[in-house]
Amino acid sequence: MKGYWHIVALSALVAAISVLFEWNLFILMFLWLAYLFASHRLKILPLLLSIISYLFFFYYLPHVETDISSQKNSNDSTLLQGEIIRSPIIQENKIELVVEDDTTADKVLVIYFPDEREIAPNETALLKYGAECIVHGKIEYPEGASNPGEFDYRQFLLKKEITKQIVVHDLTDIDCVGASFWHRFIYLRQLLLHQAPENISDYTAAWVNALVLGDDSKIDPSVIRLFQDWGLSHILAISGLHIGIVVGLVYFLLIKTSAMTREKAELVVLLFLPLYAVLAGGEPSVLRASAMVVLFIILRRMKISVTALDIISVVFLLLLLFDRFIIYHIGFQFSFLVTFGIILTRKWLSLVSSSFYQVLIISFISQMVILPIQLNYFSLFQPLSILLNLVIIPYFSIFVIPFMFFFLLFSFLSESILHAFDILFTGIHYNVLLFIEWVDEYFNYPLYVSDLPVAFFICYYLCLVVSLVLVERERLKEAFIGFILLTLVLTGYAAAPYFSAKGTVTMLDIGQGDAFIIELPYREGVIMIDAGASFSLTDMEPSPTVYERIIKPYMRSRGIHEIDALFISHEDLDHFGSLEFMIEDGVVKEVYVSDYYVFEPKLMQKLMDHQVPLQRIEVGSTINIQGQPFTVVSPVVDKQDANENSLVLFTEIGSRSWLFTGDISEAEELEIMKHYQVQADVIKIAHHGSNTSSNPLFLQSLQSKDAFISVGRGNSYGHPTKEVIETLEELGIRIFRTDKHGAVQYIFGEDEAWFETFLPY
């Protein structure tokens, strides 16, 4: 079987693709295997194993059913009895347990968010891996995404085999006893995480936890996002690089110091690596790297000759057998793709003598093999990330990661020595991160690509493999052409909106607030009307959550780099709250408000600091944004009230006329009737469907066919009111509402137009 295990692994991978995308690829798989067998490239045993591999994994791997809309949350408290089956996550801001129900075998996520006080160690002492627990609380079904591009929390949990969750409000609602044998190793990890060396700073301790123990929760979230955007997040995942350092340290300490023979040192590695995999969090990347080293040592001691490709293929199959849900883990996908890519290009690397060019090739291959997966998850690719990796990978490999192991292993050194090394590391590392931020500020030219079809993934990887094979055969000209074609295809997908005759109007589901994004055909312009945010009732400060989780991901998923014009209807946080975060992110070119809009000094200063022009517009004026006219029909006079002073805009988009009404009341609606002969095919219902607006005479005069209502699920205001819904229904107006349909899109082209809802209508 030497040299054939990769075909067995590929058969399992094709089975996984068949399950994930609901394609039955058995016929194609069989034809491929038959061709290899007929051309004498495949013997009978690997042929049979490959067929068995496909059939087994096709039925073994899970298909995640994300539609659980029929399952409703209950207000009744329930009692869950079961076992903690995964390592408890105990952090300052949350505690998470995965409990398997003893009765149903369902996996339930138990979450506790502590209040302002710190959690005492004795409060969590009984939360152990393998403990039997009784949990009191209300069963909830996680909410899924309701907007394009939004992170789907429900799907995320389902891919971890978790279907329900319980949020407890007090740790006394969790009563646990006992533990499993493996708890002591997990406890050791928790001990190392929470009792970092006393003589180093919190800043350095956070990096020790991330790069040695696999917990990046204490690293600044902005740094995590920066690494993700620039394709550097693989550095934060413990993988082959870290395992190589661990193995190198063991061999150096045991062999170079003549403490042990090589054979005995190998036994130490065999015993230590599985323990380190647990201490490092047991993520797929560290499991892959550890398993490859362990398997290599075992096979060598048994004098069984295998290739590196065989080893990674066998490890791939074993991990799939061990955990069938691991196929959905992004770390599993990235780790194996990068390792396969590097192994396939080992001949190319051997032809290059310069370490600089070897690192460049590894960086290039690593980026190319994960690029489609990266686009699928993040909709973003930084072309310059290959060059940045060229600088950052050696820096982390040679300096940062060894330093982190040093801090953990030599924490017994004197305070002055550790403090000196801490100052050295902090000074250098802080400036390197500043350099990455500088690159992000001045060389940030990302490609946004999303909604890639499955056929693209297949064609991309086929072209990539062919190009790599051509490089291996030293047919560099043909390989170069292949890489150029790949680049052109990606660029073509990124540029697709600029060649599309279709435009869209999207009402985003941001809860109890408004956010509309208008995309003109051929990407001639992107206009936004309102950008609401959630906020705290105690201090009335807006939260960045809506922007970071809904607006920004939507923009990325649509390939939108910036908003040409942002109209703010009035000064309520559910309509303007995300503005400050958009300004800070540099995605707003110009802001429009009414003559009577009252700006907070802080927000006004932010506009000036970021040089974002502010335009005040009056009733009767028409503003042309990239060829799209908007006419202001209200406010006529200053009503001394934010809602009544709402900016009301009339425009024609596609084949329909639109009226965006902000939060006006009936009085303003009747004023519009009096001063303007407005007819609007589509109306944005004012004030989320409050009974203070939507006068029947006004709606009748508009002759609208469709109504958009942006409203939060189960909101405390009772919006939209029964009276408004009945009025719309009596007038025969079709209703689209975010609490029921999620984001709603109007898609229009040269000859056609239609509405789509993100959730089933």
Automatic annotation (TrEMBL):
Residues 512-713 form the Metallo-beta-lactamase domain. The keyword Membrane applies. It is a multi-pass membrane protein. SUPFAM superfamilies: Metallo-hydrolase/oxidoreductase (SSF56281). It comes from the Bacteria. GO terms for cellular component: plasma membrane. Keywords: Cell membrane, Membrane, Transmembrane, Transmembrane helix. Its main location: membrane. The chain crosses the membrane at residues 7-38, 44-62, 235-255, 267-297, 304-320, 326-344, 356-375, 387-410, 417-436, 448-471, 480-499. GO terms for biological process: establishment of competence for transformation. Pfam families: Competence, DUF4131, Lactamase_B. It is found in: Cell membrane. InterPro entries: ComA-like_MBL, ComEC_N, Competence_ComEC/Rec2, Competence_DNA_uptake, DUF4131, Metallo-B-lactamas, RibonucZ/Hydroxyglut_hydro. PANTHER family: DNA INTERNALIZATION/COMPETENCE PROTEIN COMEC/REC2, RECOMBINATION PROTEIN 2. This is DNA internalization-related competence protein ComEC/Rec2. It comes from Oceanobacillus indicireducens. The lineage of its organism: Bacteria, Bacillati, Bacillota, Bacilli, Bacillales.
